[in-house]
Amino acid sequence: MTLLKMKGPLTIGALAEELGITEMGVRRHVLQLEREGLARNKIVRQAMGRPMHMYSLTERAEDHFPKNYHNLALELLRELDHTSGTEAVNVLFEGRRRRLLAQYSPMMERRNLEERVAELSAIQNSGGYMAEWDREADGSYVLREYNCPIRQVAVQYSRACQCEQHLFEELLGATVSRSECMADGGQCCKYSIKPKNPS
After folding, report:
1. pLDDT at residue 118, rounded to an integer
2. Are 124 and 168 in contact (CB under 8 A)?
3. According to the UniProt entry, where is the signal peptide (predicted)?
4. 92: alpha, beta or left? (left if phi > 0; alpha if psi -120 to 50)
5. CA angle in degrees (0–180, nearest 5) for 85-87-88
6. Would you kindly state where each structural domain of the chain is located, as residue ranges?
7. Do domains 1-64 and 69-195 have the same CATH topology?
8. pLDDT band, residue 198 (cuts 50/70/90)
9. How far, in Å, CA of 157 to CA of 181, rounded?
């Protein structure tokens, strides 16, 4: 993959020469990359001779190379904080919360609380939060997230966690409290979810 990233597109022969292994060995590895959706094959016609099969990486392969998004996000937030103040940063987090609320609210319609908790867990899992939920004996629910994709940001800007909690309350139509938070050194982000008392 590194070779294709740095020098691709390449033929099987060129890969074999660069790696110092047989074409058969390279073909086996490239076939596996294709099956996993990490490499693609493009046939290039030549003026003379047989067409060449050129291999390159797919967009999906980009996830296997180092990224520095959290540092960029932090730098941009610090710059905004420095030039416009903390309130401007808070406005950004609130805007994100409103956008996510608009995006996910339709998924919660006509569902009871347990179904909404299950749907929220699925939403969080699709975002990489490694979430799971349980129903407690008293009829409340617990949602745990074992990964926080925005942890580096949340450590410095607690408003990110506050907005997530408020988002959960709005999506679930329930009382949500957080008893553990990874940004504060916890093993997970743990939320207690209770039905709202009828008014």
Report:
1. 98
2. no
3. none
4. alpha
5. 75
6. 1-64, 69-195
7. no
8. low
9. 13
The string of pLDDT tens digits covering residues 146-161 is 999 888 899 999 999 9
Provide the 3-class DSSP secondary structure of residue 128.
coil
Angle at the Cα of 193 (from 192 to 196), degrees rounded to 5? 135
Report whether pLDDT(48) > 90: no
The architecture (CATH level 2) of 1-64 comes to Orthogonal Bundle (1.10)
Place of tokens 């410095």: 156
Fold of the 69-195 domain: H-NOX domain (3.90.1520)
Both structure tokens of 190: 């743990």
CA atoms within 13 A on the CB side of 193: 29
Mean per-residue pLDDT for 39-45? 92
Those residues with Cβ within 8 angstroms of residue 19's Cβ, 6 or more apart along the chain or in another chain: 3, 26
Cβ contacts of 17 within 8 Å, gap of 6 or more: none
pLDDT level of residue 63 (50, 70, 90 thresholds): confident
- Averaged pLDDT of the chain: 93
Residues counted in the chain: 199
